[in-house]
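Example 5.3 — Exo-alpha-sialidase
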Amino acid sequence: MARSTVLMVGTRKGLWVGRSDEAREDWTFTGPHFAMEEVYSCLVDTRDGRVRLLAGASSSWLGPQVWRSDDLGATWEQTPGGAVRFPDDVDASVERIWQLVAGAEPGVVWAGTEPGAVFRSTDGGEAFALERALWDHPHRPEWGEGFGGQAFHTVLPHPTDPASVTVAISTGGVYQTSDGGASWQPRNVGIRAEFLPEGEQFPELGQCVHKVTRHPARPERLYLQNHGGVYRSDDHAATWTSIADGLPSDFGFPVVVHPHEPDTIYVFPLGEGRFPPDGRARVWRSRDAGESWEELGGGPDGLPDGLWVAVVRDAMCTDEHPSAGVYVGARNGTVWCSPDGGDTWRCAVADLPDVMVVRAAAIDG
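Solution (predicted C-alpha cells):
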C-alpha cells in the first residue's frame, strides 16, 4: 500500500494540517482550524490501526482544550469539560497545553501544561488525570519560569517500561519516575545553569532545560538542549555530558532524534538575538551521538539566509518514512521539509502565523 504524509502545524493563531505523498514535494493544507487560538502542542497518534490527530489549543475566552480528529482534520471533537483540568482541590488553572505525547501503553496519552504539571489519559486523549505526586513535589515552589512561562514541555514515556517517564520543565530541570508516578527524582547532574553565579552553576534543580529526546531503540541514551548547552546521557539521565563542541552556538530550543538511527540527532542553534548566527538558517546534524557535527541547509536546495526569527522547542520534528523527513517551522510562519534526512530542503508552507509546533507522520493511503 502506498504511504502518504500528514503534517500538523500549530501556530499562535490556529492549526494547519498538511498532506503530501511519500516524496513530500507538493503539499496541500487545510486551515486555520481553531482560528485565533494558540496551538502549542500536536500529536499524530498512529497506534491501534487508526490515525488520530490531537491538538492542544488555548482560547483567550474559553481557556485550553484538547481537540481530536479521526478523519485527518475534516471534523473535530472536543473533550467534555476541557480535558485537561486541575482537580477541584487544586488552586490553579491550566493556561496552555505545551505537550501531547503517546504513551507506551495502548490508549495512553500524556500532556504537559503551564503552570508546570503533567496529566495522563488512558482513553486516547478524551479525559486526563493529574500526576499528583509530581504536582505535590517538594521542589515545585522552587521551579521558576522561562521567558515563555513555566511549563512541562517534555514528556518522554519509556518505550518498554510503562512505569518509567522522564519529564522536563523550564525552569526546573529534568525529573524522572521509575514507579509509575508514585515518586519523582531530579536528574540534572552535569547540566550547567549558566545564569547562576560561579560555583553555583550545577545545582540539583533549577536548570533551564529547553528540550529532551531519545530513540526508542536505545532508551537509556537521551539528548538535551539547554538554555546554554547541548548534552547527552548514556545512563538514563543519571548524568549528563556536554556534546556542544563543534556547534556555532550552544543556545537553541529543539533537539530531535532520527527515527531510524539512534545516534543521529538534529539541533537548530541560535545566537544572542535568538535568531540563527548571522541570520543564516541552518540545521546541524550529528551522526555519532554528538561527537561531531555537520551544517545542513546551505546552497540552492537549502534553508534561507537572512532569517531573523527563532525556531522554538517543538517546531522541529521527523517522520517515519524509510527516507526520513525532517521539518523545521520558524516564527515567520514558514515550514521547511527535508525528505532525505536533512540533505536537501524545500518550503512546505509559508506566510502562516508564528509557528509553535510541527508534528509529522507517515500514514497508509
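Remark. The longest strand covers residues 355-364.
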